[in-house]
Amino acid sequence: MYAALGLFSEHGYENVTIEDIAAAADVSTRTFFRYFPSKADACFGFTGEALKAMQASPDVISTNEEQTRDYARRVAADTAFYATQVRLAMEHPQVRIKRLEILLAFDDAVADGLMRERPGVDPALARLAAYLPTHVVPATMEAWYLAGAPSGGPDFEVPLAAARRAVDTLLG
């Protein structure tokens, strides 16, 4: 992921091949494809473990908040890297679609968790409520990027608190 984003930042997304990424990461293209089906996938790295944790969580909203705070710490430690990731997602449809695929998987996991945690909840409301916490990251990151990607990264606490209040309101 770091090799890919570095190359995309330096040469432009369209000008970088999978072979270039593999060479920069010092792996074969076969190894690249073992982990990433496409260039767009390489923009986001490995989300499988976070998704598995969400699927197994007994409290999906708290797990989402913990994962978001972990992400916020990574962003604060390397703002240029994450600004590149956001820029690519905003400018390149393939990357934006990949991000949406990832978000949909998290939407499903959170909605399933909410229905598991709150038996009898209306499934449509659970799905609607799931969208709020899972979309805190892209909404906050895009706002931060559009504000010039200030050092220190974005503040996720206000959107996280608003998402929790909205989920509680929706689900009662």
Strand fraction equals under 5%
Radius of gyration: 17 Å
* Total of DSSP H or I helical runs spanning 4+ residues: 11
The profile of the biggest β sheet is: none
Helix and strand sequence: HHHHHHHHHHH
Got a strand count? 0
Backbone shape: globular
Distance between the termini: 40 Å
- What structural class do you assign from the helix and strand content? mainly alpha
Q: Give the overall average pLDDT.
A: 94
Helical fraction equals: over 70%
The poorly predicted ranges are none
Outline the structure in words.
The protein is mainly α and 172 residues long. Helix content is 76%, strand content 0%. The protein contains eleven helices and no strands. It has helices at 2-11, 18-24, 29-35, 39-42, 48-56, 60-77, 79-91, 93-117, 123-134, 136-146, 157-171. The longest helix is centred in the middle third of the chain and has 25 residues, at 93-117. The chain is globular, with a radius of gyration of 17 Å. The termini are far apart.
Offer a quick outline of the entry.
The chain is an all-alpha fold and 172 residues long. The protein has helices at 2-11, 18-24, 29-35, 39-42, 48-56, 60-77, 79-91, 93-117, 123-134, 136-146, 157-171.
Quick tags:
172 residues; mainly alpha; 11 helices; globular
What is the topological layout?
Blueprint lengths: L1 H10 L6 H7 L4 H7 L3 H4 L5 H9 L3 H18 L1 H13 L1 H25 L5 H12 L1 H11 L10 H15 L1
